[in-house]
Amino acid sequence: MRRVYCDLHLHSCLSPCGDDSMTPAMAAGMLKLAGIDVAALTDHNTVGNCPAFFKACLEYGVAPIAGMELTTAEDIHLVCLMRSLEAAMEFGREIDRRRVKIRNKPQFFGNQLIMDEEDNVVGNEEYLLPNATTLALTEAFELAESFGAVCYPAHVDRVSNGIIAVLGDMPHEPAFRHVEFRDTGNIQAYTEKYPRLAGMMPLFGSDAHSPEGICDASFSVEIPDVGSAAEAVFDLLREA
After folding, report:
1. Quick check: is 28 in a domain?
2. Residue 76 lies in a domain
3. Is 232 exposed, middle or buried (0-12, 13-18, 19+ CB in 10 A)?
C-alpha cells in the first residue's frame, strides 16, 4: 500500500469566483509544489476546463480527477467526482441541459475562462455558472450516481451553500456515504451535533479559487502500490 495526498475540491478561472490566474496549468503546478498527488478540478456546474487540467497535471506529475461542484435547486453544493474524463464530459453535457441560463456579467461576477493546457484562452462561458440548476437534491444525487459518480455534500461546515445550513440538519435521504469538511477540525463537533454524519466518510478539499488558496498536503488515503493513483482513489471512495 502507499499513502497519497489529495485535494478533491478546487476551482479554475472558469468558475466566476475563481481568480483569472487560476488556470489549469497554474493549478497543476501549485498542486505539485504543495505536495498533492491526486487532485480533482470541480468548477461550478461545468467540466469545461477538465481536459486542459488533465493534460497539465500529467505534465507536472499530479494524478487528475475530473469533477464538478453541482448546485441543486435548493442552492446546495455537491461535489461530483468521475472515474474518467470521458464520463465527466458526458455528465457535463447532461448538467448543461439542467442549468438555468442567465447571462454572466463579468464586471459583477467575474470572468468564466475556458483554457487549454498552455494557458491560452480558447473560450468564454457566456451564461453564469454557479446559480442553481433545476435538479432537486435527491434528483441531483441520483443523476450523478447514474453516471457512476462519487457524489457528496460540499463544505458541510460552511454557512454558504452547505447542506446543513440550507436544510437545518443532515437529511436521511439521499443516502450519502461521504461528506466534505472545509476545516477538518470541525469534524468532531459537527458529528456530535448532527449524528447522521457519524456513518459518513469525512473528506477534505481546499476549495481553492486562487493559486495561493491551494493548501499544503494534509488529507491523505492509502491505496494499492500499483496502477493509477487517481483511479485507485476514486475506487476507494466508490467502494466506501
Report:
1. yes
2. yes
3. buried
Note whether residue 166 is domain-resident.
Answer: no
Number of domains within the chain:
1
CATH code at position 47: 3.20.20
Structural domain contains residue 167: no
CB contact at 8 A, 67 and 42 = yes
Domain boundaries, position 65: 2-152+206-239
* pLDDT tens, the chain, 240 aa long: 899 999 999 999 999 999 999 999 999 999 999 999 999 999 999 999 999 999 999 999 999 999 999 999 999 999 999 999 999 999 999 999 999 999 999 999 999 999 998 899 999 999 999 999 999 999 999 999 999 999 999 999 998 899 999 999 999 999 999 999 988 899 999 999 999 999 899 999 999 999 999 988 778 999 998 889 999 999 999 987
- Picking from 232, 231, 213, 212, the residue whose alpha carbon sits closest to that of residue 222 is 232
